[in-house]
Design brief:
- It is a single chain.
- The chain is of the alpha/beta class.
- The chain is built from three helices and seven strands; from the N terminus they run ββααβαββββ.
- Strand 5 and strand 6 form a beta hairpin.
- The protein is globular and about 40 Å long.
């Protein structure tokens, strides 16, 4: 089972997906496009509940570790990697620049690298 981003729970007033991150019982992989809340929010709960591995930028890994996800479930990428998820699925990671929004003091002084993936 593969999730592309984990933004299943929505902010108040947004359309519901009909599912909550806390309801997910099976996941093997969570591929996070970048570390904004509308891609990342919920990944920590899904990973902790299912044991899924999160693939994402170093920023994503930092955030997920702070949220209590085990390091053994975190796979940082920066672009150029090809990751075989199964005999039939390979993820190709592409680098991109994107703004940072997750810091302890609520700001970011430089852009972060994000990872974008395509499927084969």
């Amino acid at each position: 089972m593969l999730f592309l981003d984990a933004y299943i729970d929505r902010i108040p007033g947004a359309a519901s997906t009909g599912l909550r991150a806390d309801d997910i019982e099976r996941a093997d992989w969570i591929v996070v496009g970048h570390s904004h809340f509308d891609h990342l929010w919920g990944a920590e709960r899904i990973a902790k509940r299912t044991g899924a591995t999160i693939i994402g930028s170093h920023e994503t890994v930092r955030i997920m570790e702070q949220e209590g996800v085990k390091l053994s479930q975190l796979l940082p990428v920066g672009g150029g990697e090809r990751i075989r998820l199964s005999s039939e699925v390979t993820v190709a990671v592409y680098p991109s620049l994107h703004s940072c929004v997750w810091t302890p003091k609520g700001g970011c002084t430089s852009p972060m690298r994000s990872a974008w993936a395509t499927w084969e």
